[in-house]
Amino acid sequence: MRALSASSIIEASTAKAPQRGTMRWKDLGNAAGAITIGRLGIAVTFPFFLHRPDWALIAYIVAIVSDVVDGNLARWTGTESHTGAVVDGWVDKVLHINAAWSMSIHGYIPGWWMWLWFSRELIQGAMVFWLTGPFYRGEVRVQHTSLWGRTTAVSLAACIVLCFLGQAQWALPLTWFTGITGLISGIQYFRRALEDRSRLR
């Protein structure tokens, strides 16, 4: 059995180490960042659209399209950043949580659906104060959406669109699916954060 040299051990450990991500607000000073911030405007004002389901649906679709555009634009222009990924993710959370509670108030969905829609966010929310410092110090890895995270986001978007179209009966099974995939995604996020504490310090 061939012995490993010191250099090969270092190379192997370096290859496995996740890349650090650092928060720099200047990284939002580009076209993709402007679109993300613009979506925050829709997210904050979304409850005011609920008296007109057609307006609410249009506003939501515009927000979702902007979410796709800003990520692709960042990749096309080489302006992808840890800051952009973090802000993009939290703007999406503001949008969907604002949409969900206002939909519940206006009778579009039962209130208990929110527990399933945001099973992932319940785990992430409990970690906010724990992770705020490490995010700014660059003690977490560069943020990327996981397969389970993308699946949860798509499923949640489909639930909201179906509800605005008056098809809540079809949104119910999808709501349970969203709860399951969100829980898996949240657990993965938690495990990754634990790994970051030991591997990125």
Summarize the model shown:
This protein is mainly alpha-helical and 201 residues long.
Descriptive report:
The protein is mainly alpha-helical. It has a single domain (22-199), classed as Four Helix Bundle (Hemerythrin (Met), subunit A). The chain has helices at 6-16, 31-45, 53-77, 82-105, 113-117, 119-126, 128-137, 147-164, 168-199; strands at residues 20-21, 140-141. Strands 1-2 form a two-stranded antiparallel sheet.
Radius of gyration, in Å, reads 19 Å
* Low-confidence region ranges: 1-15
- The outline comes out as globular
CATH topology: Four Helix Bundle (Hemerythrin (Met), subunit A)
N- to C-terminal distance: 33 Å
Any idea of the CATH class? Mainly Alpha
Task: Characterize the biggest β-sheet.
Answer: 2 strands, antiparallel
Order of helices and strands: HEHHHHHHEHH
Blueprint of the fold:
Layout: H1 6-16, E1 20-21, H2 31-45, H3 53-77, H4 82-105, H5 113-117, H6 119-126, H7 128-137, E2 140-141, H8 147-164, H9 168-199
Antiparallel strand pairs: 1-2
